[in-house]
């Protein structure tokens, strides 16, 4: 039996891969080695015949940012002609559309605006909670939380506590990219480093905020950096489960979208292999399911890969279609063409893959009367 087969069988027997074993597998396995095993492991965590999804909307409340990530086509520096901060009327219109479409979650993400105090975020959350009580508020990824703490001069945990008191339900896993500071320093030198990203999530878990872990790959990093990133997530999940009895609810990854409309992406990183193919994505997803043995749900990334690849990902360890989004501005500006889909398209994709679709809320509680909680 090959060493790859032995390691895959080890996971199927319920034994955790060490980081060294993970790196060996990542470097030596092929997609057919991992996909069927990942599909079997997925069945340990969720109903085998069901695939869940969420009706939600992304709202990018500002594109003003001072962090200058090299891969980002979304942000504008302060004072730029195209810089914006959404006002209440614009927010209200978006949330009304979401509510009318049966949506239950808004995902608020934005740039690192240098002049917005924490009270701006608190007032926004409280207004949303009061005006749109049926819509959950997952907002402000770890780098945004860290940025607010710097602007305000208070600890990250105080920021999280104040935002939760104001109406925050969850912290999305954005800004994780590759959790290895060698890569982070190259592609986003001003952005939250690995330990700080994980510390924000530790604080969120302590406060019982819903969280997910995201991973963008294809910055030119090596397999060892990817496995380091997986290892950092797995260790944090172990810590959170031990300390608080809860942790990341879900994992999602996608390859870097680097088609630049402005021709300035990655000017300092020429010669690196960027992004990834559909097979790269499926391989990475299946590997993640085998290595991350303590995160229950895996979401497909249809906004970057499209629904056809998303359908395949449901056979590579994923059990969830993520959100319908209604609107997406960040990866779409970096070259992704799949910026939103209808609820019916999500359901049809799930059914075409041979599963039963089931609508859920942020915490993976079923919102359809048929069947059990997934
Ligand atoms: S990825 Fe986020 S933090 Fe980085 S420049 Fe873009 S908006 Fe700013």
What does this 3D model show about the protein?
With about 375 residues, this protein is of the alpha/beta class. The chain has a single domain, classed as TIM Barrel, CATH 3.20.20.70. About 40% of the residues lie in helices and about 10% in strands. The protein has helices at about 5-10, 20-30, 30-40, 90-100, 120-130, 140-150, 155-165, 180-185, 195-205, 225-245, 280-290, 300-305, 305-315, 345-350; strands at about 50-55, 55-60, 105-110, 135-140, 170, 210-215, 250-255, 295-300, 320-325, 355-360. Helix 11 (about 280-290) links the parallel strand 7 and strand 8.
Instruction: Give the CA-based shape.
Output: globular
Count of DSSP strands? 10
Strand coverage percent: 5-15%
Low-confidence stretches: none
Quickly count the domains: 1
For this structure, what is the CATH homologous superfamily?
Aldolase class I
The SS-based structural class is alpha/beta
CATH architectural label: Alpha-Beta Barrel
Count of individual helical segments? 14
Mean pLDDT: 92
Portion of residues within helices:
40-55%
For the largest beta-sheet, the strand count, sense and barrel status come to: 4 strands, parallel
Q: Give me the CATH fold name.
A: TIM Barrel
Strand order of the largest sheet: 5-6-7-8
């Amino acid at each position: 039996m090959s060493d790859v087969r032995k390691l895959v069988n080890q996971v199927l027997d319920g034994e955790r891969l060490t980081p060294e074993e993970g790196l060996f597998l990542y470097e030596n396995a092929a997609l057919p080695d991992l996909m069927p095993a990942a599909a079997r492991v997925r069945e340990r965590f969720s109903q085998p015949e069901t695939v869940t999804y969420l009706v939600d909307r992304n709202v990018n409340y500002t594109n003003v940012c001072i962090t200058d990530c090299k891969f980002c086509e979304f942000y504008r520096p302060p004072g730029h002609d195209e810089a914006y901060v959404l006002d209440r009327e614009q927010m209200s219109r978006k949330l009304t559309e979401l509510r009318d479409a049966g949506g239950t979650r808004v995902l608020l993400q934005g740039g690192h605006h240098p002049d917005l105090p924490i009270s701006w975020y608190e007032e926004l959350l409280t207004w949303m909670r009061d005006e749109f009580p049926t819509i959950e508020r997952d907002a402000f990824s770890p780098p945004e939380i860290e940025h607010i703490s710097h602007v305000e001069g208070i600890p990250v945990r105080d920021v999280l506590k104040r935002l939760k008191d104001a109406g925050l339900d969850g912290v999305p896993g954005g800004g994780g990219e590759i959790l290895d500071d060698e890569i982070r320093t190259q592609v986003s030198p001003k952005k939250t480093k690995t330990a700080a990203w994980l510390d924000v999530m530790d604080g969120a878990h302590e406060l019982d905020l819903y969280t997910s872990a995201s991973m963008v790959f294809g910055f030119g990093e090596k397999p060892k950096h990817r496995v380091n990133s997986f290892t950092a997530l797995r260790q944090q999940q172990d810590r959170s489960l031990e300390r608080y009895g809860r942790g990341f609810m879900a994992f999602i990854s996608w390859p870097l979208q680097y088609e630049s409309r402005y021709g300035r992406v990655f000017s300092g990183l020429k010669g690196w292999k960027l992004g990834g193919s559909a097979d790269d994505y499926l391989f990475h997803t299946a590997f993640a399911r085998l290595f991350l043995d303590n995160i229950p749900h895996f979401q497909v990334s249809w906004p970057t890969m499209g629904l056809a690849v998303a359908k395949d990902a449901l056979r590579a360890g994923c059990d969830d279609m993520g959100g319908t989004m209604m609107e997406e501005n960040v990866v779409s500006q970096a070259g992704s063409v799949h910026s939103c889909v209808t609820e019916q398209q999500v359901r049809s994709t799930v059914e075409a893959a041979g599963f039963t679709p089931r609508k859920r809320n942020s915490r993976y509680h079923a919102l359809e009367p048929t069947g059990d909680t997934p």
